[in-house]
Specification:
321 residues; Quinone Oxidoreductase, Chain A, domain 1; Rossmann fold; globular; NAD(P)-bd_dom_sf; ER; ADH-like_C; NADP
Amino acid sequence: MKAVILNEFGDANVLSYEDIQIPKIGNNEVLIKSSYTSVNYADIKKRLGNKGEGNFPLMIGLDVAGTIEEAPSNSSFSKGDRVIAFPKNGSYAEYVVANEQLVFKIPDSLLFEQAATIPTVSILSYILIHEIGQVDKNDTIVIHSAAGGVGSMLVQLAKLIGVQKIIGTVGNLDKEDYVKKLGVDIVCTYETFTEEVLKQTNNQGANVIFDSVAGEITSRSIECLALYGTLVQFGNSSGKAGTFKTSDVHSSCRNIKGFSLGTTRTHDPARLAPVVNEVLELFVSNKVSIPIARIFHLKDAVLAHQLIESRNYKGKVLIKI
């Protein structure tokens, strides 16, 4: 089968389009014929070696949309079932293996390319809004990287709740119209958001801030977080750790809450199925959608990574297998 693999860490050009063996399934696993995979910033970090040591050759990629090719006789899945999944050894390949707990059937009415936007971005966003941030319609919220995949979904989910004031940050104001169409009320850059949030809230600060950037954005977010407010930290696309002092939280009754979908897939996968059901219903009923920025062929994964690293895109970048 065709796959994109790494034989070393480095820039996008280390992605190698090769022929490798179709993987074998083990206990409680299924083989999936891939249709699409999404490109996530975690793929970039893993390619660069920021995710730890690599056992080369290795494959990257978090999620897949496709059809069941092979399943155990006692499985709840059958050949031909349309699914989304989190494969166990990467997703940049024509066939992937996944644990059944991390495989979810999708309705026939959902196109594969739209389904491919769901596993990482939409499931993560739903948990962040409803379980971690516990957003209320009366909250003022800040969504960093509002034009990205997770940001695009966080905005839409917040609007569904009825949130009246959504402040979104972007790296480039060329993305302002895009995020406003999604539902952002006030758009600002990373350089101006602290002052703008305080201005928009009569110096009270935002109730919930969603931070996937970290670095100095974390400390600047604390500066405009309301009393009893919550900073939700779920990534560090800046490549730098965010910092705060204990004095930033105890007297102000602020909360810092972290979440990792990767940790949850590993340690509490059963938590995901109910969320997937809710998210699929939202997509099927056209209450939410994620705009697709570009679709690349598997052999052009290098170009997909270069686009992600340029940050010059809006929505989700997919790879067609």
